[in-house]
Every structure is written in structure tokens, then in C-alpha cells.
Amino acid sequence: MARRCQLTGKKPLSGNRVSHSNRRTRRKQLPNLQRKRIYVPELDMWVRVKLSTRALRTVTRKGLLRFLKDEGLTLKQVTG
């Protein structure tokens, strides 16, 4: 499974780890992903989604279907 948020598309970033002597080595910054079950009251069902914590905060505030509508996604694209 890819390390990518199913709702926002956040993925790992790459960059340099810089030591005190200014030597550079490659590093990867991973997004803070969580696997959650979210209840959708409009459909009276639970949906399992892998999403970033930032997306989780927004979904908690707006609701899943409204968040998907604002992002231009459908429930089938996210879960399927």
C-alpha cells in the first residue's frame, strides 16, 4: 500500500539531512497517516480510509461527504 493520503494526496517528501559539518545525505519525510473508520450519517454506513491527520481534522469539522465534494472526489474513488 502506498504511503499516500486517500483524500488529500499527501505523499512522502524528499530532501537533504544536513549535518553540523554541512555534509548532505538524502532523507525522506513521511506524512502522518492514520487508518480510520469514519461514520457517514447520510448513507448510514462506516467507511475505512487511510488519511493524514490534517485531513482527519478537516473531515471531523466538515463531514466526509462535504469534504469529498469540495475536493471533487467521490466516495467510490476513495474507498475502491
What key phrases describe this protein's structure?
80 residues; alpha+beta; Ribosomal Protein L24e, Chain: T; two-stranded antiparallel ribbon
How would you briefly describe this protein structure?
With 80 residues, the protein is an alpha+beta fold. It contains three helices and four strands. It is elongated and about 55 Å long.
Question: Can you put this structure into words, describing what you see?
Answer:
With 80 residues, the chain is α+β, with helices and mostly antiparallel strands. It has one domain: Ribosomal Protein L24e, Chain: T, CATH 2.30.170.40. 29% of the residues lie in helices and 35% in strands. It has 3 helices and 4 strands; from the N terminus they run ββββααα. It has helices at residues 53-62, 64-71, 75-79; strands at 13-18, 24-29, 33-40, 45-52. The strands form 2 sheets. The chain has a two-stranded antiparallel sheet with strand order 1-2. A two-stranded antiparallel sheet has the order 3-4. A hairpin with a 4-residue loop joins strand 3 and strand 4 (45-52). Helix 1 (53-62) crosses helix 2.
Q: Would you state the CATH class?
A: Mainly Beta
Shape: elongated
Distance between the termini: 13 Å
Which stretches are poorly predicted, pLDDT < 50 over at least 5 residues?
Answer: none
Structural class label:
alpha+beta
Helix content: 25-40%
CATH superfamily: Ribosomal protein L28/L24
Provide the residue-averaged pLDDT.
94
Return the domain count.
Answer: 1
Number of strands: 4
| Percent of sequence in beta strands | 35-45%
Q: Per CATH, which architecture?
A: Roll
Rg of Cα set: 16 Å
CATH topology: Ribosomal Protein L24e, Chain: T
The tally of helices reads 3
Mind summarizing the main beta sheet? Answer: 2 strands, antiparallel
